[in-house]
Specification:
Elements: H1 25-39, H2 41-64, H3 72-81, H4 86-104
Helix pairs in contact: 1-2
Length: about 110
């Protein structure tokens, strides 16, 4: 009774033999951490935060136009350079007066 079973019946671990690099424990450890970096939670959070920041800046740039600062950082830079329009400077003065009145009660 001869069976022609073609399955690999060799043992996975053969004593007194050397492992190749791709079968070493070191490579298994490295590949485990690479999988964690690719499929873990941290990369997803980083990608989501990056997409939010980029999307927000693009949306504000399209909505407000090129001459309008997108955030407070750009506002201070443009104010220091003297690039803010009269309308934006007037808005700043009105907002500052409002907050001053709210804090002092005058």
């Amino acid at each position: 009774m001869a069976t022609e079973d073609k399955t690999d019946t060799r043992p996975k671990f053969i004593p007194n033999t050397k492992r190749s690099f791709w079968n070493s424990r070191f490579w298994y450890s490295v590949s485990y951490y690479v999988r964690q970096l690719r499929h873990g939670t941290a990369p997803k959070l980083f990608t989501a935060a990056t997409l939010y920041v980029v999307g927000y800046n693009i949306l504000v740039r399209k909505w407000k136009g090129e001459g309008h600062p997108v955030n407070r950082y750009q506002w201070r830079i443009m104010e220091r350079r003297g690039e803010l329009s009269d309308e934006l400077l007037r808005k700043k003065r009105v907002v500052n007066e409002y907050f001053h009145a709210r804090l002092t009660g005058k």
